[in-house]
Amino acid sequence: MVVDFEVTRTPSYTVASILKIGPYREDNLRSEFEELVSWAKKNRLRTGKWIMYEHDGPNSRRPGNQRRWEACLEIRGKAKAEGRIRIKKLPAQAVAHVVFNPNVVSSRIIYHGLGDWIWWRLKYKDFKRAGPTREVYDGDPWTNTKAWSKVDVQVLVEK
Question: Fewer CB under 10 Å: which end of the chain, C or N?
Fold first, then answer.
């Protein structure tokens, strides 16, 4: 399996999202995605990509290792915000990204390698700014093995 980093431009997405503040957990954002999927079914909306944002990195200054996470479910059709669910548009953006299968290559290696690769690109001024990080899936990564096997880790970059 070949794994390589590249810079590309993503399309814009209209998403329903839920923000969560807390420490990292193995099943992070799972209950938030379940709530989003239930809401989308209730409102008869077609869904697409599953996007998991980590807005604060591990060096955030929030007390008790608290970080901001966001579950974003791409929706197609008109929808209104309800309760803690917000509707927003993620603009088309440049990203440094890598697609890999976590069952074949360790995610720790991918994140470390991508982080170092971006650090050097920042140092040599190929990028002005980088962050936050997000994972993009084509479906439910907890129940869909095909979606899980093609995780797209993206870091937003500004050239």
Answer: N
